[in-house]
Structures are given as structure tokens and as C-alpha cells.
Amino acid sequence: MSVLLKDIIASIQADINFDTVSETINTISIDSRSSQNNEKTLFFALVGPNHDAHIYIEELINKGIRYFVVNHVPQELESKANFLLVEDTLKALQDFASYYRSLFHFPVIGITGSNGKTIVKEWLNFLLAPDYNVIRSPKSYNSQVGVPLSVIGINEHHNFGIFEAGISTVGEMSHLQQIIKPTIGILTNIGSAHDEGFDNISQKIKEKLRLFTEVEVLILNKNKTIEAFLNKNIKTFTWSTQDRNADVFFQKNTYEDYSELNITYNQLCFKVNIPFTDEASLENVMHCVLTLLYLKYSQETIQERIAELYPVEMRLKVKNGSNNCTLIDDSYSSDFQSLKIALDFLENQNQHKKRALILSDIFQSGLSDEELYSRVSQLIISHKINRVFCIGETVSKFKNKFLNAVSFQTTEDFIKAFEDLNFANETILIKGSRQFEFENIVSLLEEKTHETVLEINLNAISHNLNYFKSKLNPKTKLMVMVKAFGYGSGSYEIAKLLAHHKVDYLGVAFADEGIELCKAGIELPIMVMNPEMTSFQSIIQYGLEPEIYSFRGLKAFLKIAEEKKLENYPIHIKINTGMNRLGFDTEMLPELVEILSHSKRVTIKSILSHLASSDVPEHKDFTLQQITDFDNDSTYLMKGLNINPIRHICNTSGISNYPGAQFDMVRLGIGLYGVSNESHEQSKLEHVGTLKSVISQIRTIEIGESVSYVRRFIATRKTKVATIPIGYADGISRLWGSGVGYVLVNNKKAPILGSICMDMLMVDVTDINCFEGGEVIIFGKDPSVNDIAKATNTIPYEILTSISARVKRVFYRE
Ligand SMILES: *Cc1c(COP(=O)(O)O)cnc(C)c1O
């Protein structure tokens, strides 16, 4: 894009602190981490309930960004950059997007509804791509922020738009309507998702329909309830599988692995085959068929293209590769917009110094090849990619634009040469459009482990972090506990995200955990809760901060500090207030003051204690006593030593149940990972980890036959049994077996049959439609970690941290 700054200023009605306005802006950014930020970027400092991007401005100015949309000018920066002052930076972003959209005049499809938006959008893009230069929302960018960013991606070569809009409460859709300005509307369906934001279903319907106030046609499933809410002058184009009065009537037949739709439309009667059998996919196809009919596509083209539809994978996945590589798998799309997103994602994963990109031809950018690949080359350079592998005829022609590029005509050629490419110790982004079948490359590069994975949703972690932040007083600092491999979820990835969110401290249990984080480039201060004396040397070497809880530890640390002539080395003093685990007792404090007042080697960064029972209401008096004792004991130390350290005592349930005990900092643990022992709070958290596996084998056994060791299960009916390659060595408690627990197969509960083995378990799939190789969910939303903990008489902490290291962790963002 290239827009005059003065037009932007007018469109968002900003006050400015500078006068040269003849300049142009070429990128809009809301992400401080994006390396596409440059001197022609306009950065919108968005503010949410729990985050405020104004904190990144100083850092961005140092990186050369000059233009900022702000709701206030941060202190002392006034003279250092150009500020566009507005009341509400999100509204400004939306207003600009709306202005920008109005510069273009071509058909635009706006899609909303409770389910299927993204899939319908992706499929329509696939169906229309041969005939149009389509711009579409990347991924599932359908929010108040995502929609403006999507629309801003339009360039002068596009001639068709497809954007999705998602809302969660009243009043949001009219903003999105203004930004998308759809000419064709699609309403996928109205389900019960996200109901919290609405008083009732009619309010929700009315709000969604606001997207369609100015469309020339609205495509929807014929439905009396919805039609009653529709403005009379909106023209509809409806389908149904029941009501013959609909404009298009579908009759469907489902077979083993495909379905057939018989379509009746006016005089036209024809059939399409679809490579899907589930209800939801069929509905999505119907919306696509109506769109094609409305756009006057021929019966033959519809049949041909619909038969080619494919499952949509929208997520960027981070995987472990062999030879210590990290893979970012985005092997299903290759448009320019999503390449930008993927490169930013790569930027944030800087675990390895070396970065490689495997890239196929890019389709439908709306640009000429020359211009497109010049832009790609700029991206590649600004993201410091060390080597590029071009696959495909077109991209290969431009390989000289990329530094250090190798080209291949086809994916097969690449695979033949694979052994000689020596991938090792690097982060590799795999980005290709579907027909290049880059999944074959991914499976070559992937570390060979068994097929069980723990998927970690990074968006959910951010959500949970922000939820707990919103409970804190503005001045309260936040330490996040990433001990025990981030409660089983992987510490580096999570620490990286926490660093971005600017938490104040990380907490680990042992020095080794902290050292790993340092080595991987985490710069946040790290407190080590249980530093063994043998690790003091390396603690100092890596600048970790030990928690000191005994005289023995203190004396040993002071001795080393003396030898190394350290000055004011930060330490943390732990006080025992009733947990009776680690810490100084009240009567030890005078001696502690005595010792510390004579040492300049260390400085007390913080004083802490730990609550033993903050999650149990019956122990409220005990907990309040702990808090009072902590207040007294820490005050004694502060007076005795004349210091003013950070004080902290609350863990997750302390934050929730004792808001008055935040002192100067809190220590968030399990809540970050989406687990609460309180049902109201649980409903506010997003679940982070999903443990998945696959079916290895299916067999049917007769009445009287048994399953697993010691024949603990005997069939009382003909039973279909599926074997899953996960067992107690992976962390699945045997108590969860023998009819107590279940897994989810095809969204249905499959009870565990007999004993759980070391590496496998068997489940009952008699009434479930499933196949060998099919996916199984061990835990996630259902069953939740809490459900399993209850049934096996333990706590969620133990379940999370028991998942063994051989289970691969895969991180993703939605
Ligand atoms: C683990 C731990 C926490 C975090 O506890 P959660 O209950 O997971 O929030 C806080 N402080 C200390 C000392 C811990 O060991």
C-alpha cells in the first residue's frame, strides 16, 4: 500500500505534533515484533483491557519507526517521533481501514455466522482463484482488529475480496460492516457459540445481520426465524435440504468417503461429488455452490471445482525437526499476506541463529511476478533469512533476487536432493501452496517420534495471562512460574511469549531450568526457587537470582560472592509462614538481619513466602494468618536492614481468592496453563494443552474375549476395540484405565478397556465411526485435565507435569 499521511490523518481525525505531511505510509502495524516495521510504517498503539502497546513505543523509535497513532504521547518521547493523537486507537485503525476500503470498487463477499466462516472463505478463494485476483482475510482474522488488518491488505491489482467477520457482543458488527462494505453477504449459520455476549438469540441474530445492511444479495440457509429479522429490501438467495421453496434445493447422499449433492435450481438439475461426509462440511459446500451460481458459473465448472475441495488447515504449527531444527509448518497456503504473517512468526521463534525458508510459487498476489518476487525478496532480506529453497517454475526464475537461494522445479526434485541440503540447527519455515504437497517435505524434516503430541495453544496462554493481569492492581508486578518445563507445556516457547508480554520475572525450580532459558536467549530476570549449592557458580555465571531460604545456603552463597568479589548481587529471601517447606522462621530473623547488614556482596531484591492452602475456602483463617505473619516478618527485615524490596506471597489461587494480599508482586502458575479449581474462573480461562494420539489398530472381539493384561476387561457384547500408542510411560495414570476414563474419538467418548499398558491403551469404539490412523484426543477441552485429576484422585498439576518428555510438544497460534 501507499497512502498519503495527510489522508490518513484526515480519515482518523488525529491531532498531530509535526508538520511535514507530504509523506507516504507503506505499512500499517500493530505488532511491535514485526520486522516489516520500517521508517514508512504507521504503528497503531492499541490498548486492550489488560495490555497497552504504548509501552513498545520507545523501543520502536530506537528501531527507526517514526509514526505512531496514540491516545497519549508517552513522557519524554514527544520530540523523538511523530505522533497522531486520537481518543481511541482501535477506532482510529477501523476508521482508517474503512477509508482505505472505500478507495476500491470490486465485488466483496462478507461472511459471518457461528461456524464455518473460515472454511467457506478459504474454499471460495480456491474456487474463484482461477478467475479473479482475490484478497481474503488471512487465517481467521475476523475480529475488531483482524478485519481492519485484512482490508488494509488490498492492493491495486485485486479485483475480488472475501472477508470474514466475527463478533462477540452487541454493537461490534456495524464497525465491521463499515470496514468490509460487502456487496455479497453469506450467513453460514447461527449456533450457540459465544452466547455470553448477548442477552438472547434474537439480539444475536439482529447483530449479525448488520453486516448485510448494504449488500446486493444475501446467501443463506432458508430459515423463517432469520428471515423474520431481515430488512424487506434485502434480496436473498436461499438454499435448503428440506424446503422446496428455497431458491436452490439440495438432496444429499452420503457414502463411505464422499457425498453426492443433487442440486435443483430453476430449470437446472445436476449433481456434484464432494470429498467429505460430515454435516458441517456439506453445509459449507452449499454456501459455496450458491455463491458460484450467483456469480453465473456453469454447471460443469461447479462440478469440476467442488470435487477438488480439500480440508482447510489454518494454523501455523511449530514442530521439532531432526538434527535439532525447529520447523514452522505452514504448508497449505502461499499467498503474500500469509507469508508476511509466517515470517513474523518465524522472527519470534529465534531459537536458532540460522533461518531457512522453503517456498513454492505464490499464486493470486494480485501483483505482477516481477513486483511480487521483489517484495518477497525485501521480506526475506528484512527477516535475515540465511538460505532460501525455491520450489516451482515461477519462483525459480526469480531466485537471483534472494540471497543464497537454490531452486527446484518440483517438490520431487527437492526431495531427491534432500540428503545433500544438510539441514541442522536452524529454524525452517515451510510455506507452500497446496498443490506442491509440502506436507511431504514436512514429514521428511520432522523428528521421528511416535505419533502422540501435546498441542499448546499460544493464544490461550496470552488470554489467560491477560485475564490474571486484569485482577492485579496497576502497580502489582507479575512473576510467572515456568518450572517443571512450563508445567509440562514447554518452557522456552512460553518464556518467549511472556517476555513479549513484558512480565516482570520468571520463576523456575532448579538452576538448570533457568540456564536453559538464558542459553535460548531469554532476557527476563529469573528467580531460582531451590538452588542447590553445587549450582551457585553457574547461577552467578548466567545471572540467575537465587532464592535463599536457610543459613546454610546463605553462608555458602556469601562465600562464593566474596571469592568472586560480587557487589549487590540480587537474591530473594524466603520466609516460612506455615507451608513448612523452605524458608526462614520468625525466630531466625534477628540473626539474618545481623548477617546481611554486614554484607555488601548481595542485595535483597525481594522477600517472599508461599501459601499452603489458598485454594481451600475452609482454610481461610489459616491463610489470612500466613498473610499477616508474612507482612510482619517482611516488615521486620525491611526495617532491620533499611531496605525496600519487592514483597510477594500469592500463587494463582491466591490472586483469585486474596486480592488484598498482592503486596508488590504475585506468582502466577497453573492459571496461565488454563487450569483453575473454581468453576466460575475455569469458564473464563482458555484451555492450553491438548494431548492427541492416533489409532494404531482396530479389531472386533466376540463376547467372552478379553482385552489387555490380566484380562481386566471381558466383552459382554461384540466389541470394536481400538489400540492407541500412549501409556503410563507417557504419563497416563493406570488409575484412569479399566472403565474409569475415556478418550475422544470422532468427538465421541470411547471408554478405556482394561489396564493401561506401558506404551499403549485400548478403547471401546463399537458405536463410533473411526479408522486406523485416525485422531484421538486424550485430554483437552473434554476430558479436561481437571476431570482426569478428579477421577484419578490427584491434582491437575500432577497430570500436566507427568506427560513424558518423549511426547512431542507442538505450539500453535490460531
Ligand atoms: C509453583 C509455585 C507457585 C505457583 O503456584 P500455582 O498454584 O501454580 O499458581 C508460586 N510460588 C511458588 C513458591 C511455587 O512453588
From TrEMBL:
Cofactor: pyridoxal 5'-phosphate
Reactions catalysed, as given in the entry: L-alanine = D-alanine
Enzyme class: isomerase
Keywords recorded for this protein, A-Z: ATP-binding, Cell cycle, Cell division, Cell shape, Cell wall biogenesis/degradation, Cytoplasm, Isomerase, Ligase, Nucleotide-binding, Peptidoglycan synthesis, Pyridoxal phosphate
Alphabetical list of PANTHER family matching this protein: UDP-N-ACETYLMURAMOYL-TRIPEPTIDE--D-ALANYL-D-ALANINE LIGASE
Family, similarity comment: Belongs to the alanine racemase family.
Name this polypeptide is given: Alanine racemase
Organism from which the protein derives: Flavobacterium amnicola
